[in-house]
Specification:
Elements lengths: L1 H10 L12 E4 L2 E4 L4 E4 L2 E3 L3 H11 L5 E3 H8 L8 H16 L9 E4 L3 E4 L4 E2 L14 H29 L3 E2 L6 E7 L5 E7 L7 E6 L6 E2 L7 E6 L6 E6 L5 E6 L7 E6 L9 E2 L5 E6 L8 E6 L5 E3 L9 E7 L5 E9 L2 E9 L5 E7 L7 E6 L5 E7 L4 E9 L4 E2 L3 E2 L7 E6 L5 E5 L4 E7 L11 E4 L5 E6 L5 E6 L6 E6 L6 E2 L9 E6 L5 E6 L6 E6 L6 E2 L7 E2 L5 E6 L2 E6 L6 E2 L6 E5 L5 E7 L4 E7 L6 E4 L7 E3 L3 E4 L10 E6 L5 E6 L4 E7 L5 E7 L5 E5 L4
Antiparallel strand pairs: 1-2, 1-8, 2-3, 3-4, 5-7, 6-7, 9-57, 10-11, 11-12, 12-13, 14-15, 15-16, 16-17, 18-19, 19-20, 20-21, 22-23, 23-24, 24-25, 26-27, 27-28, 28-29, 28-30, 31-32, 32-57, 33-34, 33-56, 35-36, 36-37, 37-38, 39-40, 40-41, 41-42, 43-44, 44-45, 45-46, 47-48, 48-49, 49-50, 51-52, ...
Helix pairs in contact: 1-5, 2-4
Length: 713
Amino acid sequence: MFLSIRMVANLNSCSMQDGTRPKIVGFGTFRLDLTAGELCVDGHRIRLQEQPFQLLKMLVERPGEVVTRDEIRAQLWPAGTVVEFDRSINAAVKKLRIALKDSAEEPRYVETMARRGYRFVAAVQRLDGTPELRRPRRRLVWLTAAISIVSMGLVLWILNTRTKTGETELTPVPLTSYPGGEWHPSFSPDGNEVAFAWRRPEQDHSDIYVKLVGASEPTRLTNGPADNYGPAWAPDGRSIAFLRKLSDARSGVFLISPIGGPERKLGELHLGAYGSAVDWHPSGKWLIVTDRSSAEESPGLFSLALENGEKRRLTSPPPNTFGDQEGVVSPGGEALVFVRNSSENRWDLYLVALSDGFTLKGEPRLITLESTFSYTPAWMPDGRTIVFSSGSPHAPTLYRMSFSRPGWRAGKPQRLVFAGVGARDPVVSKQGRLAYSTSTIDANIWRLELNNGYQAVKPPEKVIASTHLDHTPQYSPDGRRIAFASNRSGSHEIWMSNSDGSGIVQLTFFRGSGYTANPHWSADGRQIYFGSTAEGQYAAYVISSEGGQPKRLGSETPESWSRDGKWVYFHHGGEIWKRSAAGGSRIQITRRGGHQELESPDGRLLYYLKEDEEFTSLWKVPVEGGQEVQILPSVCCQNFAVADQGIYFVPDGRPEGHSSVHFLSFATGKVTRVAALADWAAYGLSVSPDGRWLLYSQYEPKGSDLWMVENFR
């Protein structure tokens, strides 16, 4: 039986040299189309000359192997070519490293093998679905195939039997059911107690609590007005580590006894509420935290020594990414799994092996490809399996993934059906107890009748609602229709309705776990542009407003139009550009960053958003480029809409405890509060063309509970 299973595994292992050659591959944050000759990072195409591209193609087709300089010379320069080969090869390698932002001294991708050639050291994943089967020797084809069929049938029968018997026995039961929300469970070493964060309905912050499994009343450990979250029980059971938000730009790491008492501050992190938790090294000597050395850096993982509070960097995410977080170490201290936010719309799990001294062995390797949002990983006691959340960030579920040794080769993720939708924050005790939190996000679209920039007279009315997420509404240019995003069908799609919310129809049918949102209309109202991760990487799409098949677009996708319809504005390389709607060269507008641009009514200015350390602010710039001026210090959830007489926007609502709509008058420059919202604003703000109505999306109150499953192996 063991021999047969190994044969099946060998037949399905990947090989870049055998079988069909790959067409599209991925490594790090890069995507390489070998057929089209395109190298992209986060949806943006990188210009690469022919010889550096051919060199990259040779390397990724043979990852981990040395490609000799003689092989490179023969491939790049046909026989009879007269050229100084060594200098030309060096120049091609240098250009390739510049494109990949790689270093010869500390290579992440291309490693120099002295006097021999070069080697591609990063993990390479196929993204095109081409076959990856090894070819067995010809004389053993029929024997191997027969054994494989029988073995595969037996394996599937065993797995099916386990699923039918095992999963039906795994029944979740409530671990907490308090009002408000409970998150971030962490078991004591003996598995009999659980620490968690709880935000009561009457509070605007969460505190750390501990309770016995099976008991009803918890013990409160922290007090005060600050947010306390992410508890992690120490391996020796004597203390619980947790995070406390000190400001929008700083968090503190603290220790407290499970029975309460004074806290011990271990250090500060140069981040606000970034990363949901801390984790312990099994030795109890270090904590794993998310931090950065300066505001310009992407956050990475650090070890924090309990003895002296010293921090040491563990991971260095690539530039222009959102950083690393949620690092967890295997029970034996042999591997580290963490979340890397390669872009706003992609969260992946990475794994890297560890040495005995808690240092990294090699470069982190991507282990998830099937979903664009994978996060909150947790190790099982065997040290060879992880449980994690995956799917839509608004309605994820739990998966498990096992690794084979040596090499920490990742298997295919298996969905834990019993967990249902909205499951996240898994943790597994040594005794086989699985705990996790469940919550789904509900937001509805409301309509407010405006009063020429003054306080609204009539209360808002709900026009588009479900028990799921309805958000990012946008009026059509004629004001008769609304495009919006929703996951009411079970997946995130683009929908459309009449202006009063009636006649709702679904436009896209991506299905799956991708995230699709942010529709905006073409100037003539015939097309709707939107963004989606339905095919893995975030990309822009367009679909007819009458329905049909959506079309994937390139990187310079229109995001807004000029008032006369002659220019289109788009976001590229962190800046705002424009080009003629009829085609032609692009023109750069901003020089210091910007996105989500809208033109002024007179067509002379462009209003846009910029991110800084704490807030999103609103800026303006002439449509031909020039001086960039901040006009509003705070805009929440990208919510602003340009009307004829001014700008409607939602500022940061934390000082008030809820969101509100404000109006900035073009004539006077004064800001007036138009309406207070009943709860927090979600994403999306749109003014009807006649200026009478304002659409916005608002979150509905929902709690979060902890659940537990016994005998989870």
